[in-house]
Amino acid sequence: MSLRQYEYALAVAEQGSVTAAAELLHVAQPSVSQQIRGLERELGVKLFARTPTGLVPTVVGRAFLREAQVAVSASRRARATARAGADELVGELVVAVQMGFGTRQLPGALGALRSRFPRLEVTVFEEPSSAELDQLCRRGVLDLALMAACDQSPADAHHLGDEEFVVVLGPGHPQLAADRVDLRELEGEPWVRFDRDSALDGVLLNVLRDNDLTPTTAARASQTATAVRWAAQGLGVTLVPASVVPDGHEHLVRPVFPVVSQPVIAVVRQGPGPAETALLELLRQETWSEPASFSPVS
Q1: Per-residue pLDDT in tens (0 to 9) along the chain, 298 residues
Q2: Cα distances (Å, whole numbers) of residue 33 to 29, 48, 70, 212
Q3: Inter-residue contact 146 to 101 (CB < 8 Å)
């Protein structure tokens, strides 16, 4: 088996067809077909099933592809490290962020990183589920992740600061007169919540439970900016990290009592290369709230 076969299989899974995968990889279609057939013969399993909508991975194929992605990512990082010079860095950096974290800090750090290493390709995505984010870290798919908690060792987890959560109220809401909203004053309020398996919805449920409040769900949003805008239109109140509030909505935002906050932890892959090290340093230079005492979860 070769890394080329892994890359071809991953492309077929992503595109859903050999033809589209060949176009993505800029190779001839027969080459992709041959490599996939050879891989399946060597493994002794069927990696893909043909359906009316295209090729989809089998159960065994999905398990194989997860490990193939780890191997391909590791190979790319190794090539990038080997080719890194004093003033040049090429390759790919994969960054994941727990939804709502680092909204103001990450763009500046990434901009500075790209200015320093213009040939570096950076992929960034938000992950609503903290459990899924933790699994991606364990599998070695990510180069760096921003999250609230992790099972990594202290050497791999770096506490950057904290994200304080704020409540967003509709225009004319009586609690806008307060400098800080007592959460118990929101009894009976409808809430704009997040997807059920998201970390943000978990925070909200824990906060309401701790303050003996029962949530009435007005709506669910998949993005923090959407939740803020819906709350600003009076659909219901919402609880979000302070840094995600879009410009123009600050007058509808209030901190809460008791204070709600989560640590922001940068989890760097084991054996980090120059790109991960540089990005971590740039994130440290960004403005974060004062960190509380922190012990990585074991």
Answers
A1: 777 888 888 989 888 888 888 888 877 788 788 888 888 888 888 999 888 878 888 988 888 888 888 888 777 766 666 555 545 666 778 898 998 898 889 999 999 998 888 888 888 888 888 888 887 777 777 889 999 877 665 567 899 999 999 999 999 999 999 999 999 999 999 999 999 888 999 999 999 999 999 889 999 999 999 999 999 999 999 999 998 999 999 999 999 999 999 999 999 988 788 888 999 999 999 988 753 333 333 3
A2: 6, 12, 22, 59
A3: yes
Nearest to 91 by CA among 108, 74, 115: 74
Q: Is residue 298 part of a domain?
A: no
How many domains, in total, are found in the chain? 3
CATH number at 226 reads 3.40.190.10
Strand partners, 48: 57
Contact by Cβ (8 Å): 155, 161 = no
Residues contacting 195, CB < 8 A, separation 6+: 128, 201, 220, 222
**Residue 292 forms part of a structural domain:** no
Domain enclosing residue 170, as ranges: 163-261
Q: Which pair of structure tokens corresponds to residue 82? A: 């080997």
